[in-house]
Every structure is written in C-alpha cells, then in structure tokens.
C-alpha cells in the first residue's frame, strides 16, 4: 500500500519536472523514508539549496527530507536559528562551513567533501591580506561563496540577495569586492550610478554562470519572444547588457528571481542560472513555463539522496568523520563577525 507521505513526495517531484525514471525508482522512496526516520531518531535537520536535485528540495511537510530549502542567505539564517544538535547540509562546502560558524555547538555534516565551488577556491585568506595591504583602509566585502578562512579576513560578507544594500551601506568611495568578477561588474554599474563608489574586483567566476553567452540567450529570445529573462548576478555582464533590455525580466539573486516570477504577469520565462533552479520554479509556479538551458553545477551534483542517507547513517558513529565539517576555532571566531554583519541585512 502506498502511503500518503509517498504520494505527496511523488506529486511534488512530478510538479517539479523530475524524470520518470526518478519517480519510478523504489530505492529512492526507501532512502527518503529512512532519512526521515533517522532525522527524528537523531535530532537532525536537513538544509537544502535551490541548486540541489529536485528530490532533495522536497520539504518534510511534502513527504521529502528538507527542513528548509533556500538560497545562501536563507540557509545561513536557518543555520543560525536552528536548535537541532546536527545539521546535514545539502549544498556545497562553503555553505556547510558557514553553518558551522553560526552553529558551533551543532554537528554539521556534508554528504560529499567533493562538493566544492570554483568561486571559493579562487581566493584565500592570504590573498585577502595582500589586498588589504595594497589598498589600506578600503573595506572588504566577501561574497558568501568563499571558505571560512577567506571570510575571516573580510569586514563583512554578502550574498547575491543583499550585496547591493551592503555595498551602499559601507563607508568610503571604494570597496574591495571578492571573488566574483562578473557579479562585481554587474554590481558596479548599479553602485556607481547610485552612490559613486568604485569596486576593486578579484578574478574569480562561477563555472556555471560564466557559461551563459549572449548568442545563446538571444537565440532563445528569438524562439520564445514572449518570455521574460531571469538572470543571476553571476552571469557575465556582456550577456546582461545585450539581452535583458530585449525582453524584460530581472537581474538578481535566486530569491529575487523566485519572487519576480510570482509577481510577474508573464507566463513564460528564460532562466539564466543553475539548472535545478528550474525545478524549484516549476514546483512553485506549475501554471507557468520555464525555458531552462540546463547547465548543472558539478559540485552541487556531488550531493544526492544516497550520499545524504550515508551521512545521516554515519551521525554518532565513527564514520561521522568522513562527513563532519571541522574548522579551526580561531578562524571560526574571526569569520563569525563578518557573517553576522551579513545577516543583519537579511
């Protein structure tokens, strides 16, 4: 007999556009059921990012495993507020590190230590110290897509959702913004116009968002002339300059994009962001159509249901060390303040 929980889970997956082979896999439902039970036995919560596969985005209330689904800022807030003794983080390593900084007493597990980030590895704490010597007194704004040792050297962190507000609020006529070059260029246009401030940028980039090109997007705009364009801040500025004005839409964070779709009268959208954000949007707005050039983050896709189950099983056993996030106490202490300042803008 199929349970009500299983039915809700399958319905939500179908609405999110999951492949039929995913829906018909009995091992998937068994893994989901076991994770749900282990969460309750072990007092753990699951935090899941919008770029996770659809089956990891379905909430506990809908028969899935996620206690909270969100963007980097939302997940940081959730990590800072949870009273759970353990967090299993369905995201990438810098996100799990941020959760550990904000909830130092909790055990934080990452289902795959291979879940890295091209932005996070593009810069180190030593690089930030070099920039501070080169530009003494200039405030450092570190994008949340950095490791804890980098955050520890910054004055404040930001996410794509609050970067503009934070940049406007910082003192002086110059800011060091790191590490995303394209996001920095996109922000610079707005910040310069509204505040006159200049950004000193690093040369990092997101290996997903940098793949979007003007010709690719303009081709889709010709095929779908009524569609509005949804573009993440990390997409190259050349793409935005040549495409956004052609069809209308939004340049913003993941949450900005989700909110915009809900408020727009348009029924069709072209998404220039990670593929599985398309699953999120289909689940939230099933009456609307999303054209998604499916560029997947290889790091996010290191996390799946079965690795999440392995991490949950390992909690409170010797195998826990294979998944546990551990940070130097001094780095945790130093990283906490810039992250806390970021949350004040949440």
Descriptive account of the structure:
With 346 residues, this protein is α/β, with parallel strands linked by helices. The protein has three domains: 4-116 and 300-326, NadA-like (Rossmann fold, 3-Layer(aba) Sandwich); 120-201, 3-Layer(aba) Sandwich (Rossmann fold); 209-291, NadA-like (Rossmann fold, 3-Layer(aba) Sandwich). It contains 16 helices and twelve strands. The protein has helices at 4-15, 20-23, 26-42, 54-57, 72-81, 93-102, 125-134, 148-151, 163-169, 181-195, 214-223, 237-247, 254-263, 277-284, 305-314, 329-343; strands at residues 44-49, 68-70, 86-90, 107-109, 140-143, 156-158, 174-178, 198-201, 228-232, 249-252, 268-272, 289-291. Strands 2-1-3-4 form a four-stranded parallel sheet, sandwiched between helices. A four-stranded parallel sheet has the order 6-5-7-8, sandwiched between helices. Helix 3 packs parallel to helix 15 and helix 11 (214-223) packs parallel to helix 12. The longest helix has 17 residues, at 26-42.
CATH architecture of the largest domain: 3-Layer(aba) Sandwich
Q: Within the CATH hierarchy, at the fold level, what is the topology of the largest domain?
A: Rossmann fold
Helix content: 40-55%
Number of helices: 16
Kindly provide the name of the CATH class of the largest domain.
Alpha Beta
Oligomer: single chain
Q: Structural class of the secondary elements? A: alpha/beta
Number of strands: 12
Mean pLDDT: 93
Q: What fraction of the residues are assigned to beta strands by DSSP?
A: 5-15%
* Rg calc: 20 Å
- Main β-sheet, in a few words? 4 strands, parallel
In whole angstroms, how far apart are the ends?
A: 44 Å
Number of domains: 3
Mind telling me the CATH superfamily name of the largest domain?
NadA-like
| Strand order within the widest beta sheet | 2-1-3-4
